[in-house]
């Protein structure tokens, strides 16, 4: 049922240190990779069926193969460790517990695309994760896994840990590149795609932490091993993150295609005495689902077939004590705050969305406001510069689809009919603010 | 209360206080950061973290120093500094206390915790207590949702918070009691934390556990039920027996070292 691979060493003593990682066979995959031709490493990752774990699900090996090797410019690998999508909490615990899994993947991936420098762009708001990444890179340098002539292979690589400074938009890969170049983090027009003109205008691969961290296991155990897990088009194991009103929230590593019903069962179910109301399959930018979707396979196709997206597999669970209007308003405030301001539909649209939702939550809206909201969403979705604007519309349109009556109840009631205390974790403990 | 507080955000901040602490050492460290990158301008974000570690905020002198080192104008540096939430134009207290009020944490209790702390500290959002100890800010999702409601002190995790544990935490910080993050190190000052973000390690990486209870929830269940990934090409998957390295059953005391289970702070 569960298949710990990425999380397998997390219960080892000082699992973040090189010595512990190597006791578990760490860096064996790097030795294997360095004995292969770079193109064969790309092929192995292609054959495994690994798809991007940052949300979009693009095949990782194919992304690597887009790097034009006849281009004389330097090539770069950039790891997107800017984990900020609301609900998403998988890369941070991975890097805290086992930064070397990522670092080993970085060296193998860099070798495969023949990068000279790799960057780990980690959000700035996670001090201890940054400490462990810095230490892991130093340990790997001292051991000869990073630097000149790595393990006698003739391959040279430098790795830089780079801390961001608080901007959700930098999780968007081209905004991340601008930020890494020392600019405001605003997305770039594509094409050209980063594979052709990325960091400093050079060929660049940008991958999510979990995608890169999956590479050593693929090289070590083989593409067939990886693709023996998962479903037809969604291969391998992945980290599902359960949070919210669930008995045992946390990280559950399972093959792609497991269902929320199965995961909830493993996690002790929805908190005692309550029932599932709505959930996100992969962060707040993926349309909400309900108890009707408990048996949907949580793979790229399965979640897509019910009008949502697998996203980051951030399963945020909300029970019947939660006001969906309040939840959606708060997410919308987040998108408004994080909109970079580059394009008008997102910059202005998220501002307007917040104003209308505030009215609705406080019982001062009308049914016409719901139509205005949907109209606004239509004008943002597909018309904004990047996926941030699209994501901002997801919770709104899906919540109106499934919970229109609850929106109506707010103005019938003249305000929010929910008690915010009832939804808290300390509601039952008798604590109060 | 909060609205009339001396540090309220509507009070203008002086452009320069004339007591900049940027020295030749700072400039040398800025050059050291720039040298890490193929193109020097990439160093700007870490350099601004360094400015905050020296000045306690982003000062005009800090902006000019970055501009000089990178061959940019002050306006170009300011444009970047004002884009990112972590860069502060007002002096930050010794401890930056963040309360996550994004949807999941808010619903789980973050909103009530934030309200309680505003009252308790008599400050509003993004304001500093009069003793200069604590700057309170509501923050967005910090990637620890499985520990909601979450707080951050100088960007270290504080998990599964309640209004009571939150007020105890800020009281401890103000009184100078040693405070440890349940998934991190002993809390240093905000300026010291900013120095690490600039890329100057403080040697604390080995403090704290591998992860908390939620991080290990799935792994523990898999161990209990003997669930593993399929065997790999080399005859055994990483999770199978026969792989060298300590396993839970042959490592007495592993739990106490690897996993932080008793959060004593919360029982205070």
UniProtKB/TrEMBL annotation, chain A:
Pfam families xref list: Complex1_51K, NADH_4Fe-4S, SLBB
Domain NADH-ubiquinone oxidoreductase 51kDa subunit iron-sulphur binding: 325-370
Swiss-Prot/TrEMBL catalytic activity: a quinone + NADH + 5 H(+)(in) = a quinol + NAD(+) + 4 H(+)(out)
SMART domains, per database record: NADH_4Fe-4S
Keyword Iron: yes
Listed GO MF terms: 4 iron, 4 sulfur cluster binding; FMN binding; metal ion binding; NAD binding; NADH dehydrogenase (ubiquinone) activity; NADH dehydrogenase activity; quinone binding
Cofactor(s) for this UniProt protein: [4Fe-4S] cluster; FMN
PROSITE patterns: COMPLEX1_51K_1, COMPLEX1_51K_2
Keyword Translocase: yes
Enzyme nomenclature, EC number: 7.1.1.-
Keywords: 4Fe-4S, Flavoprotein, FMN, Iron, Iron-sulfur, Metal-binding, NAD, Quinone, Translocase
Matches recorded under InterPro entries: ComplexI_51kDa_subunit, NADH-UbQ_OxRdtase_51kDa_CS, NADH-UbQ_OxRdtase_suF, Nuo51_FMN-bd, Nuo51_FMN-bd_sf, Nuop51_4Fe4S-bd, Nuop51_4Fe4S-bd_sf, Soluble_ligand-bd
GO BP terms, alphabetized: cellular respiration
Family statement: Belongs to the complex I 51 kDa subunit family.
Role: NDH-1 shuttles electrons from NADH, via FMN and iron-sulfur (Fe-S) centers, to quinones in the respiratory chain.
PANTHER family registered for this protein in UniProt: NADH DEHYDROGENASE [UBIQUINONE] FLAVOPROTEIN 1, MITOCHONDRIAL (PTHR11780:SF10), NADH-UBIQUINONE OXIDOREDUCTASE FLAVOPROTEIN 1 NDUFV1 (PTHR11780)
Name this polypeptide is given: NADH-quinone oxidoreductase subunit F
Gene source species: Kribbella antiqua
TrEMBL record, chain B:
Disordered: region residues: 224-268
Record has Cell membrane as a keyword: no
Molecular-function annotations in GO: 2 iron, 2 sulfur cluster binding; metal ion binding; NADH dehydrogenase activity
Top-level taxon: Bacteria
Keywords of the record: 2Fe-2S, Iron, Iron-sulfur, Metal-binding
Cofactor(s) named in the record: [2Fe-2S] cluster
Keyword check for Lyase: no
Family classification: Belongs to the complex I 24 kDa subunit family.
PANTHER family: NADH DEHYDROGENASE [UBIQUINONE] FLAVOPROTEIN 2, MITOCHONDRIAL, NADH DEHYDROGENASE UBIQUINONE FLAVOPROTEIN 2, MITOCHONDRIAL
Protein name: NADH-quinone oxidoreductase subunit E
UniProt source species: Kribbella antiqua
